[in-house]
């Protein structure tokens, strides 16, 4: 005991000696605070600890220790220091704001709220009410938080962060108009406020204000160029805007900045897919899956790219993996409706069609649980049209699956009453994702011009999301009475269109992309019609009319449509006469043998139906000098699949060539140099027909039972040429060889086609007939 007493006494003597050597408490605090202000936190901490050791009840030391811990992100320790002070001096309130902030940072907003309430009530200020609002917001008390932020703004109307937080709360409460006002005010007050600009951009994006969102995101980019998440958002925004090069650029930057961001890799793959860069997209999707093997959406995307390359086994495997990871109806439907771009044989067509029938029947046994088909499915049954069969039953069966998932009317007051002119003008909406320099606008741009010019019609252009914006778009907007860029949100788009009070809604195309397809299930006008931009019945019960023509429809065509068929007595489209190259390249310049007879099929490869193989074989057998040429389809491998098929079905397949995808000069030169052109079976050339007719080179066509395979024959009938229209596949081959081997006959047909350009090109009869039909709806 005596020894222990001596040791303890010695310690006390040492401590008293140290106290005599230490500077006074106030001086130590001043030194510590100076170091603290200079950011020399570790040195400041040592001095604060010395003060606390000498005087544990020193309130200033406790405040400064708490503040230092908060600044160095030691939030739990900061709470501990402030809590000691509160026990020591419960009457003090000057540090409570700091205590509340530390509690918030530790996720204890429920404890911070009463602390902030004391501060706001005892020393009300904009900062006090702002802090309370922040804690209430974090605590999920949105309405109370709004009141607190409003109190802050009553004291300091130019408090940018209070406006930003109000905007976030109003957006959370589904009050986007109020949110927009506060976000805009926040960045107006503080132009370098990156979070404010980002919140504004995110809101504008969800509201479909994509151009405005782009401007706001660019403001953030100027402030935070190295933000990978921002680059990701910009990349996906440019996807929606159809600006694929800009999208790819930002997404590539995103993955460079954050190589492990799986979402950015998947989105990059989606952009590459839209660019037709399927091999590159597969690499991006596989990188995303290396980072997140359970990423079901990336597996679906991978399946899409595999399908576009015709790699159907791998596509099925990818879809099945997505279904295993996410066993939901959307994935079941996607797998059930999978179809290839190229078929190996007629039997292969039958097998895939039977698979589709069985898949739809199985899905129809119980209601589907799909909330938003656009986001969950995001695709149409595009490739069905190329099988060559009667698609109406399948289209109706697929539509019947979606029908319960989508509202039949935009709101309870939506009308289906007959159209009336009202104020004397028929209000016509035209909706498409392709209102730019695209084949759809090449077909129907003149229709829109005549609608806009008619004094009895009010034209409203509705730009579906995902379409490009270019000079053609700007010109169309300038001519229309109104135009509206729709958001990629079906519910919001439906509301915006319903508010327009349209008399007629025209879809130039349904089936090329998913937005217009799913939107068409809702009645947004008393009359809704579709034009043959995608020449297949929709199967959708809310589409009233399919507006076609007499020249291209068979006598019993009505049976193939779920809509009421309208046969206008005119060509269905208006096509500007192409300007041909001044110089036509020679066959030698084009890499072709001048001694061969060139049979050129300029149609996309997924239109080459297996039934066409017998005609190709017959051409090669009948003409030893024949060489049949196709174009490779961009950067896909579809030509390899066709070559494999031809090797099985065509004995002389070595005389079939696949030429590189040609740009304008080479394309028109090849059309001109061909002895004959070959139309595809069951789904013809569409706009390619007009390009062929521009050169005058005879094109052989065999009309099928349905509009999609009768375009070429209809155009020929309109200009009075019959000898290029075959009655069967065998007759197709016979005509092709007969015309190719008879230069005089070929020249005569060419001249007859060239003499008919006034009928085929820039002919107003089609647009005029369509406008007259629309006006007839009003009585």
Summarize the structure.
By secondary structure, the chain is α/β, with parallel strands linked by helices. The protein folds into four domains: 21-226, Tetratricopeptide repeat domain (Serine Threonine Protein Phosphatase 5, Tetratricopeptide repeat, Alpha Horseshoe), CATH 1.25.40; 244-405, Serine Threonine Protein Phosphatase 5, Tetratricopeptide repeat (Alpha Horseshoe), CATH 1.25.40.10; 426-568, Rossmann fold (3-Layer(aba) Sandwich), CATH 3.40.50.11380; 597-760, Glycogen Phosphorylase B (Rossmann fold).
Task: Give the class from helix and strand content and strand pairing.
Answer: alpha/beta
Q: Please identify, by name, the CATH architecture of the largest domain.
A: Alpha Horseshoe
* N-C termini distance: 117 Å
What oligomeric state do the depicted chains represent?
A: single chain
Number of spatially distinct domains? 4
Instruction: Write the CATH fold name of the largest domain.
Output: Serine Threonine Protein Phosphatase 5, Tetratricopeptide repeat
Shape: elongated
Helix content: 55-70%
Strand proportion, as a percent range, falls in 5-15%
The first-level CATH class name of the largest domain: Mainly Alpha
Cα radius of gyration in angstroms: 35 Å
CATH superfamily of the largest domain: Tetratricopeptide repeat domain
Please give the largest β-sheet. Answer: 7 strands, parallel
- The averaged pLDDT comes out at 92
How many β-strand runs?
12
Number of helices: 36
Low-confidence stretches: 1-20, 412-418
Q: Which strand order does the major sheet show?
A: 3-2-1-4-5-6-7
């Amino acid at each position: 005991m005596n020894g222990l007493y001596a040791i303890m006494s010695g310690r006390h003597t040492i401590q008293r000696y140290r106290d005599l050597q230490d500077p006074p408490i106030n001086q130590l605090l001043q030194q510590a605070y100076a170091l603290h202000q200079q950011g020399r936190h570790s040195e400041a901490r040592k001095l604060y600890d010395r003060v606390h050791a000498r005087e544990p009840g020193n309130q200033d030391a406790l405040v400064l220790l708490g503040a230092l811990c908060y600044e160095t992100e030691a939030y739990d320790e900061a709470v501990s220091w402030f809590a000691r002070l509160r026990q020591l001096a419960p009457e003090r309130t000057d540090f409570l704001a700091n205590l509340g902030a530390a509690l918030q940072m530790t996720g204890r907003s429920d404890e911070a709220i009463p602390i902030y309430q004391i501060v706001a009530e005892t020393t009300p200020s904009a900062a006090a009410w702002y802090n309370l609002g922040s804690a209430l917001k974090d605590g999920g008390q949105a309405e109370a938080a709004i009141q607190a932020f409003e109190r802050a703004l009553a004291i300091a109307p130019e408090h940018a962060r209070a406006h930003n937080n109000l905007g976030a709360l109003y957006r959370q409460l589904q009050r986007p108009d109020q949110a927009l006002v506060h976000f805009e005010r926040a960045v107006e007050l503080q132009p370098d406020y990156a979070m404010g600009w980002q919140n504004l951009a995110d809101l504008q994006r969800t509201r479909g204000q994509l151009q405005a969102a782009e401007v706001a995101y660019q403001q953030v980019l100027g402030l935070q160029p190295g933000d990978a998440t921002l680059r990701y958002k910009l990349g996906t925004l440019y996807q929606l805007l159809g600006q694929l090069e800009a999208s790819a650029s930002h997404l590539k930057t995103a993955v460079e900045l954050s190589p492990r961001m799986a979402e950015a890799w998947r989105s990059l793959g989606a952009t590459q897919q839209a660019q037709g860069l399927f091999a590159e997209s597969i690499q991006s999707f596989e990188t995303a899956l290396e980072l997140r093997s359970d990423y079901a959406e990336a597996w679906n995307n991978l399946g899409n790219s595999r399908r576009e390359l015709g790699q159907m086994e791998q596509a099925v495997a990818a879809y099945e993996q997505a279904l295993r990871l996410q066993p939901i109806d959307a994935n079941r439907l996607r797998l059930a409706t999978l179809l290839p771009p190229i078929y190996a044989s007629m039997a292969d067509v039958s097998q895939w069609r039977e698979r589709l029938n069985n898949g739809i029947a199985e899905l129809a046994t119980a209601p589907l649980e799909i909330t938003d088909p656009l986001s969950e499915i995001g695709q149409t049954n595009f490739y069905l049209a190329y099988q060559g069969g009667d698609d109406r039953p399948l289209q109706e069966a697929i539509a019947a699956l979606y029908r319960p998932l989508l509202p039949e009317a935009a709101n309870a007051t939506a009308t289906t009453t007959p159209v009336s002119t009202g104020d004397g003008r028929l209000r016509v909406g035209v909706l498409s994702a392709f209102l730019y320099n695209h084949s759809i606008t090449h077909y129907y741009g003149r229709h829109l011009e005549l609608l806009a010019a008619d004094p009895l019609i009010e034209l409203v252009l509705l730009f579906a999301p995902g379409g490009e914006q270019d000079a053609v778009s700007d010109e169309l907007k300038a001519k229309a009475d109104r135009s509206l860029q729709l958001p990629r949100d079906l519910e919001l788009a439906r509301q915006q269109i319903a508010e327009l009070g349209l008399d007629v809604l025209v879809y130039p195309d349904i089936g090329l992309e998913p937005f217009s397809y799913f939107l068409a299930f809702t009645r947004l006008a008393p009359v809704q019609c579709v034009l043959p931009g995608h020449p297949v019945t929709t199967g959708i019960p809310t589409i009233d009319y399919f507006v076609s023509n007499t020249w291209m429809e068979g006598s019993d065509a009505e049976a193939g449509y779920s809509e009421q068929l309208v046969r206008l007595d005119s060509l269905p489209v208006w096509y500007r006469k192409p300007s041909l190259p001044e110089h036509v390249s020679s066959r030698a310049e084009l890499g072709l043998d001048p001694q061969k007879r060139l049979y050129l099929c300029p149609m996309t490869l997924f239109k080459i139906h297996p039934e066409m193989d017998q005609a190709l074989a017959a051409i090669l057998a009948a003409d030893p000098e024949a060489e049949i040429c196709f174009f490779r389809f961009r950067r896909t491998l579809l030509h390899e699949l066709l070559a494999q098929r031809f090797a099985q079905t065509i004995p002389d397949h070595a005389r079939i060539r696949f030429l590189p995808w040609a740009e304008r000069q080479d394309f028109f030169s090849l059309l001109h140099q061909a002895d004959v052109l070959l139309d595809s079976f069951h789904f013809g050339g569409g706009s390619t027909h007009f390009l062929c007719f521009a050169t005058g080179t005879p094109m052989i066509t065999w009309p099928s039972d349905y509009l999609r395979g009768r375009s070429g024959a209809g155009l020929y009938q309109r200009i009075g040429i019959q000898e290029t229209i075959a009655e069967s596949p065998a007759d197709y081959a016979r005509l092709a060889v007969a015309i190719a081997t008879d230069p005089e006959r070929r020249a005569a047909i060419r001249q007859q086609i060239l003499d008919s350009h006034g009928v085929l090109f820039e002919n107003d009869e089609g647009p005029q007939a369509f406008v007259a039909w629309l006006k007839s709806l009003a009585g």
